[in-house]
Amino acid sequence: MRAYMKKAYLLLPAVLLIFSVSLSTFAKADSVFMITSPAITPGKTIPAVFTCKGRNISPPLSWSDPPAETKSLVLVVDDPDAPSGTFTHWIAWNLPPKAGSLPEGASGNAGMIKMVEGINDFYRTGYGGPCPPPGLPHHYRFTLYALDTRINLSPRATRRRLDEAISGHVIKSAGFSAQFAITGP
Description:
Elements: H1 2-30, E1 34-36, E2 61-64, E3 72-79, E4 87-95, E5 101-102, E6 116-117, E7 138-147, H2 159-166, E8 170-180
């Protein structure tokens, strides 16, 4: 009986290690890379404060569970419904994956979070809120890309340059969309 107990005590650490690895693998399999906003409900109307009809400030954004191998994140906000084709409202790169969020008004405030912002299709650096022509609602996509590298682009780079730089480096993406319309003049 003593020999059996001694063997059981010797095997116990190995069994516990295997069990803990299995649990951590299971927990990671359940995690989902996501981007959300406490101020914007997916599929609903973007509050005016984040548009040209309000203060035109960048909304607060949060993300969770980027892949473990993520070196940096890229944020793209665009409008696929624009009359001239997809219109870019905000591009930012080299966001730290572990930061977990951008506060309201982070665009243009380098002290809030370390990131690099590019030129939007309003020909300005940083965030430019929804400002569609009067009529039907436009949809605005908030997309976060997890990359296996940091991007080496100068500030004020364009969307085209950013798309070229991230090509082949996207591990995973997450996103949501919301809408905004201007009614009347």
